[in-house]
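re the bet — no i am not wrong, look at it urself. input seq straight from the record:
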Amino acid sequence: MNLSDRLAHARGEEPASAPRVQPAQVDTLTQLKDRASRALFERLGSKLSDADIPEEQLHAMVRADLRRVIAFEQTPLSDDDRHRLIQELTDEVLGYGPLQPLLDDPSVTEVMVNGPDTVYVEQGGRIVRTAARFASEEHLRRVIERIVSRVGRRIDESSPLVDARLPDGSRVNAIIPPLAFSGSSLTIRKFSRQPLQIDDLIGFGTLSADLADLLRACVQARLNVIVSGGTGTGKTTLLNVLSSFIPETERIITIEDAVELQLQQEHVVRLESRPVNIEGRGGVSIRDLVRNSLRMRPDRIIVGEVRGGESLDMLQAMNTGHDGSLSTVHANSPRDAVARLETLVLMAGMDLPLRAVREQVASAVDVIVQVSRLRDGSRRVTHVTEVLGMEGDTVTLQDAFRFDHSAGVDADGRVRGHAVPTGVRPHFLDRLVDQGVSLPSRVFDVPRPSFTGGQG
């Protein structure tokens, strides 16, 4: 079955390429599918969730058993029906059931399940409801358990929420009753099969070529960069692209809650935190990993996201010779990012005075890159802000680039603007010169206003 046919199947529609079948034939195939599925679960049992069995071997085992089960049935099937039935059952048993076509569709960036009967997806920056549904709450729970068991996690009434990932790195969050009142909830943020490059972001309009040159220079000159933004704005994607500018000769340590970064360099050590077990022991936090990374002779430390006391350890690392570190933080503006870092440092429980915390932030962070999701659903870099230092009790910030909202929207409702230079030359340009990193002077030239007679 091709992708369009599988999507049609997920919506409960008839595939365009399939011959028209009568309702009685559909009922027969559905009953056959149910019987074959139950028989397969009885034959293979726990092998289906055994992480020690290689994926290729498991697929071959399932397909072989499916052929035996279907051959044992007395229902006459055409070759097309047999092939389609085996594919659907394979998706059901080893894949993710009705979600599989959505996960296979490259235009879908996020899948959101609000109970067995409600499935939404994000496409082109917009959320739409699909006709995909699960047969029951138990069916949905079975898919969730299959996902989390493959990465050594568990989900049940004693541990009803979990963060996990798919084999391709896609981020998964699941929460089940009694915490999820209307049925189990599953959220999958899909990973691009091919890591995006800076040229892709330029093509998407996320940033301009001049801004890309500036960010490349900042990373190569070992400035400490914080990527700030709200949920779903593309912080991790931008962080991944920024990390691609790190030279191959440097040793990189990445630290994440769930491994998402797709670094292309060879000398990379990837660390992942671990939650506590059922006995409340064995947990390893991001903060533990940041502390340990300092003993691993890193040239660069990349923290996927700071959200707690580890921010203090990261700032101290930035201030003690680990220049060029990268991380992300949840905030809606560069000023909010500074305030957020201050709050996170105070969560470390060190009872530091607020001024000392602000001095840590001002001394450690060189550049804040703000990414936002605009009203048309697009993700854009809206600010590149330099952290200048302290003025009294305030951390002083200065925008080098700021989004131009005056350009309006085009006929399709897409925002035309992009981040443009403010005309202020950053103080960190001296650092670039010291590091031998060149940057065209035109990068900071303020564009002349154009008079087009309207906003489209």
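see?? Residues 1-94 form one domain. told u. also The first helix runs from residue 3 to 10. so pay up
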